[in-house]
Amino acid sequence: MRLSSNIALLVVSLSAGAACTRPPASPNSALEPAPVAPVAQATEASSSATAANDAAPSGTDGPDVARARETAPAQLFNWEKLDKATFERARREHRFILLHCAAAWCHFCHVMEEVTYRNPEVGKLLRDRFIAVKVDIDARPDIEERYRDWGWPATIVFSPEGDEIGKMRGFIPPDAMLETLRAVDRAARVETSNDGEPGATSAPVDALPWLFLRAARDLRTYYDTTLGGWGMRQKTPLGEDIEYEVRASATDPDALGRALFSIAQQRALIDPVWGGIYQYSVGGTWDKPHFEKLMTMQAANLDAYASAYGKTKRPDVLADAHDIVSYVERFLTSPDGTFYANQDADVGAHDEHTRFVTGHAYYAMDEKGRLAVGQPWIDTHVYAYENGLMIAALVDLARDAGDDATLARARRAADSLLATHVDETGAVAHDSQADHVRFLADAASLGRACAMLYEATHDAHYRDAAVHIEARMVETLLDPATGAFFEHTVDSDAEGAFQRRQHPFRPNVLAARFLAALGSITGKKTYGDLGRRALAAVSTPVALDDQGRILGSYLLALDELGAAPAAAKVPSAKPVPTAKPVPVAK
Question: Distance (Å, rounded) from C-alpha 465 to C-alpha 459?
């Protein structure tokens, strides 16, 4: 991001303990401020916010939501929609827009909504001078991709003209929010850089083998030889990194050791009562979890366990896979066999009349205790992106474990999705009630799942569905000028900053893997050519640096597209611990 010449961007970067994030690329990115200079008022707000957050040690739940509900007055403003009418009103009434990016499963989103936004002074200021907008980032994958580096909740401030003028990370206490909002009038418009977007700095296609070597080397530098996993400050079960290491073990004798040691260490994040894997742990250890259970994390780690079991036939690894499958089947599977999006960490977060119980207290209970208290809220949206990931993971497990029942689960989910989420043109809807906008991540994920199902079953229905989805994806989302794919189809209701469609790195990587799978099942070289061009286009220096430790999927895509050099190996700097098989009594 580049600042305008005469004013600095309003930025508040808060404590990592006060945000619920999907894993940040850099293990330290949730703690480090963005590389821009804050205005003085924002600096003061940041200091007070950080002090408040630092008062709660890593792994705690922050302010008491139950007490806030009992004592705080009613919210003084209404949440509006992120739509064209909101931006038109902002221009007409010369109001700033505050965008609250939240996740239904996010503990600190609940805290901020109950503590900060119900504060009378904050509420009055938002009511009188702003338009407050709330977005569920799981329902809007474009918003999630755009602001994911800011954690959840992310708070974005727009000018009346729709330009971004500030970004704030994580939970913001009321006093800090007041200072920040009062500073908005004194913050000017900023210019957004396209340095990470495809263009002049994109890699040429013939550089992909070199980029594979660089990415493999970079991933190795993030590996924690002491505790396993990638990254030091936040321990996250990065399934795609593990899956890559398993595959790399064909040429790198140390890679399997890294994968198995990481699997053993992250076992601390598997719920010992119901199964399923938590999102991450703070404090640089595996024993301070955030208890959200996201479908994206279940799928990625199921894929990792399937590949590791296929390589080693270790029963403890298969048991980990079954822990995820049993959890998903019990809690995140709909009556038609499709999969729900996630489960919250806390009980009562979505119903102020229900007793609020934090995840730390709840997940310390046995099953009887949990059932007596209730159950954390489940997001019952059926999103194509999450479903495609889980279907693909189930196909992998069925192949590696020889499990026909698991393959049947994958087929049932795919058949339901193809009937409800894919129209006659091949366009894939985010959910069955989605509007006219279609997202790249949905098409790439479900399309790849269909291609994998064809490979597993030889049922032409899945091959034809995959081909149909790809054709529509190329027609509506491919940017012929760069070779990369846009994040979504043209949105006639978009305003301000959202009129500029981006080419997000991770969905493009998934699209490349989809195209590689199509090339494999059809034998058509053109699919691979498209995939390599898309991957090269998004491989800019800024975009690659931004990935940090989350490089597994990129490396897998390069390998699947034939862009990995033969016998590629990056020597390890240190000996790699190995994990001994754990006896399984299940």
Answer: 11
